[in-house]
Write a structure and sequence with these properties.
With about 170 residues, the protein is mainly α. The protein is about 60% helix and about 5% strand. The chain has six helices and two strands. The chain has a two-stranded antiparallel ribbon with strand order 1-2.
Length: about 170
């Protein structure tokens, strides 16, 4: 078996997907984005399954991974449409938090170059559940474009993950 066989390529793609999914999971946790957290969790499990199937020559696991890759591409297309306000979707809605919190993308306040300022509340209004008003200025890139780049990278890698599949099944 050569170094650039379909099997080695799929192992590399799965490993890259795993690293990118873990990075994305961290930032979704920081922003309390519950729908992406769940999707990332299932993605990580399925990529590990695909990696295991590739290493152990388990074609059924690789088929599950390939089907999930198509679902993963569709999810990331939805995320791109969501953040670009396409088709009636709005990045300002609480859809990704299942409408249980008012959190948004972590990048909206902590993007590259962003200066975050908390505005103090009126004296005597402080409670344990009060939220302060936050202003964000000077961002080099709007947060929705960072989210779109994350999803685009996921689509690009997932698209290549299915590519060596034809080579893989020939070797099995």
């Amino acid at each position: 078996m050569g170094c650039c066989s379909g099997r080695c390529t799929l192992i590399f793609i799965c490993t890259l997907q795993l690293v990118l999914a873990l990075e994305r999971q961290v930032f979704d946790f920081l922003g309390y984005q519950w729908a992406p957290i769940l999707a990332n969790f299932f993605h990580i499990i399925t990529v590990i399954l695909g990696l295991f199937g590739t290493i152990q020559y388990r074609p059924r696991y690789i088929i599950v991974y390939t089907v999930w890759a198509a679902i993963w591409v569709a999810w990331n297309v939805f995320i791109i449409c969501f953040y670009l306000d396409v088709g009636g979707l709005s990045k300002d809605s609480d859809l990704l938090t299942f409408n249980i919190s008012a959190h948004h993308s972590w990048w909206s306040e902590h993007g590259p170059g962003c200066v975050r300022r908390e505005m103090p509340q009126a004296p005597g209004v402080r409670t344990t559940e009060s939220h302060s008003y936050i202003t964000v200025m000077g961002c080099l890139m709007d947060y929705q474009y960072i989210e779109v780049m994350h999803s685009s990278m996921q689509i690009l890698v997932a698209g290549h993950g299915g590519e060596p599949e034809g080579h893989q099944s020939e070797q099995l």
